[in-house]
Structures are given as C-alpha cells and as structure tokens.
Amino acid sequence: MDIKKIPANKENIQNGDQKIEEQVLLIRRVSKKIPGGNYVTFSALVVVGNKKGKVGIGMGRGLEVPPAIQKAIAYAKKHMITIQMKKNTITHQVKLKYKSAFLLLKPAPEGTGLKVGSVARVILDLAGIYNASGKIIGSRNQVVNTYAVIKALQQLKSRPKGDRPLVEKSHE
User: Fold this and answer.
1) Phi, psi of 68 (to 5 degrees)
2) What DSSP assignment string belongs to 81-101?
3) Tell me: the pLDDT tens digits for 43-98?
4) CA gap 3, 57 in Å, rounded
C-alpha cells in the first residue's frame, strides 16, 4: 500500500475529476477594542491550484481559525484564473507595479526551478509553473505580494506558434 505524505498546511481535494491542492499562506490574529474588552478575529490567506494552469487566492475572516480558512478556500475556488503556460514556465516576462509592490517575473529554461521568493513560489507551484525566476521589490506585505502575483499572471498572453523561443541560448 503506497501512502503519500502530505504536509500539515497542504490538502488535496478531489473536485470532480480534477485534483485541487490548497495551501495556507498567512493567518493573522486581529484584535479590536470594544467596551467589554477585546474582540478577537482571525483572517486567513489561502491559495488553491490544480497544478495544470488554474490557481486562485482567497481571504477569509472568522472568530476562529478553521472557519476563516474554510471561507478563504471557498472564495479561492470560486475565483480561480487560468494561466497561459509553455512547457512548465510562463510565456513571457512580466513587470508589474501593484500598490507598493514592484514585481518582475521571467521565464526560465527547463530544469531551472522556481527562483522567486515569498508567496510567489507557492502560487506558481500550485499553478503548475515549475521553471521561472523573479523578484518582488518594495513590499514585504504578503497580502499585497499575493495579489500582485495573481495580477501579473492574469497579464500573461499566449504566444503564436511561429514566434521566437522564450529563452535564447547563448553560443559561447
């Protein structure tokens, strides 16, 4: 019997015939002063994807952590986007300014891996992009960076078949 080990914050969900993975990126404890004391809620940022070009993000709030995560997952599944890919990488370079974050994503040759930091690596992995490089400058806020990566992935366009290759090899 072959048993696959799944990390604690990742789950696999069978949705019809497609397998959707989810991962919690951030859980925040939010406290608010009220006349009777403190009002504590939790917010969760979750990314879901099928590793075949579809990915979504969601943010949920609740009085406890599990309901917040469930709300975020439900929102992310409803708002999944399809990403243009070519051989496990993105189709072209993307530069994007979103709020305080400046994001640069570049395609990479096969075998390079994901050379991006923070939440971008998780989002690209769940989208099915395994070779890309990038940089996020100007923001360390994970929520802003997450929305910036999704906005950049929405800007990807497919290439015509007769177009030049994505990554040119230098002849040295």
Assistant:
1) -65, -45
2) EE--EETTEESS-EEEEETTE
3) 999 999 999 999 999 999 999 999 999 999 999 999 999 998 888 899 999 999 99
4) 28
Side-chain-facing half-sphere of 43: CA atoms under 13 Å: 8
Whether 94 is in a domain gets the answer yes
The pLDDT of 3-23, averaged and rounded, is 61
Q: Average pLDDT for residues 162-171, to the nearest whole number?
A: 56
- Could you tell me if 32 and 15 lie in one domain? yes
Residue 111 CB partners (closer than 8 Å, separation 6+): 131
**17 and 73 co-located in one domain:** yes
Q: Model-level pTM greater than 0.85?
A: no
Instruction: List the domain range (segments joined by +) for residue 56.
Output: 10-81
Q: Indicate the length of the chain as a whole number.
A: 172
Side chain identity at residue 63, one-letter code: L
d(CA 41, CA 32): 8
Could you give the CA distance from residue 39 to residue 111 in angstroms, rounded to a whole number? 49
Q: What is the pLDDT of residue 5?
A: 39
What are the residues whose beta carbons fall under 8 Å from the beta carbon of 19, sequence distance 6 or more?
12, 13, 50, 51
Do 110 and 87 contact (CB within 8 A), yes or no?
yes
**Pair (19, 75) in one structural domain:** yes
Task: Report how far Cα 30 is from the mean position of its chain's Cα atoms.
Answer: 23
